[in-house]
Amino acid sequence: MANFNLANSKLAETLIGKNMKAHPDCLGLYIGLDEMYIAQTSQKDGGTVLESLLRVPVSDVDRTQLKPLDLNESYFQMDNWLESLTKVASRKKWKTNKVVVSLASPFCLLRHFVIPTVIERKNWKTSIPLQARKYIHFPFEKGEYAYHVYEFETAATKQKKMGVVFAMTSKVILERLSKGLRSAGLELVSVEPSVLSLSRAFDASDKEAIGNGGRIYSFFGKDLASFVFLNEGAPVLLREVEISGSLPAERRRFEITNCTEFIAKQLEKDPFEEAVIVGHDVDNWITALEADSKKPVRKWNLTEVYGIETKSAGEVSAIGASGKFYDSKAPDLDFVKGSRLSDYEFNAALMAWKIAVLVVAVFLIMIVKGYFGVQKTESQLKHVKATNANPVKDFEGLTASQISNNLSQIKSQNSNLEKFLKSNPITPLLVEFVDAIPAEVWITKMEYKDKFPAESGKTRSFKITGSIKSGGDGQADLALGDKYRRALMEMPLISSICGQEAQISYQDVSVQDESDDNLDKPRAKDATAKKASNETTFSLECGKEEEKYVR
Fold it and tell me: Does domain 423-551 sit in CATH 3.40.390?
């Protein structure tokens, strides 16, 4: 069989979507309340090179329509931001029209929480948003969310847990962003919270960083101080404080101390190894930051990295947004991910498609073999009929009774062959079987038997073995197993084999009450009060003895 390399073909992208590397060059657009920044970067020698950076002022913003701790959809109903952006976009020639938007904190929410037990990746899609509802009170049906998950180990108990960075914005904001950028001749590729863009610019360019990514970046702009808390490379928290020449010591200490204590309590360990001070006129803050954070403080000059004196965190956010696709392994919080997949997702989908192609190939081979098998059988049937068309030779010298018995035998053989040829093929049966499988049920083995018609009758049967992982206790697994059995019995072809006689048995399940009439017997005799694993194994089988074929 030919070896099709889907990874290197356009077919793969058509079937499973483009991966993150599909957009190497993008403009970075930071959108704040009073100003925007557009950055264009390139990658050279593993680092980010700033090619251009433009400030786009947004004037006459009606702040009475804006609310604290809100997503401020009304901002994008105003034409101020779009008018300013359109003017700049029309005058500037960019090497690309693809844009990664970095949304300031007034337009999105960011939360960090911990899940005490490690959840398998396949269950993240349902379990993580359910947990996030405890911390975000914005209606989920009106929002778009993204999350980043990382595992860590507590310091004292050495227990593995999951840290989740969860971000949300409004669907209205995304719709107006896409429409507005399109009218300005730009294509929206990605939207992310500014804290991610900011941390990416810091983390990717900081060559002196130590440890596992546990750092506090303190960026002092002209009017705003931004504190970015990174753990395991993930932006777990952002605090912004307006300043006017100086930041009161009490306010500064309150912000840093409370944030570090909050993260340390969640992670049950000291999450930070150093503090980095960046930005405009920071010399006066080094000693104070070291005292407040209780960490060694390192001064980092961004001018040496990007060749400009950055006075606003928005500038750095735009730079970080432009370099989004330089490193596919970096944390990703994308509100409009669409068909673009991470390397992990792309490779997983690619493997799934390879398996699907293999399964289809096997079924095609089976169909072809079955077709030729039927043709052969029909040929044999025709041969039997042709052979018996002139019975004189075969019946010479026989009595009337013997001739009658031979004729009955020939008719029975022909009848059996015709019934076999008209019997239901396996494919419709498999379709019914697959359609009935719940998401929580995993099938490991299926056996199907359909004997050729014989004089003593025949037995049609099948047996399914697998596991159930409902997420609840053993009782929930048993209920789900019985639900699956009933669903199978409602399938016409399967019901024709089993009737209502399918039996299901369980193993590795902690159920003490054997009186539940809704569940089939037998139950596992070796059940324990506490399950050794998070799944219940089961075996479901049935059979039906058909009428006997008479010679």
Answer: no
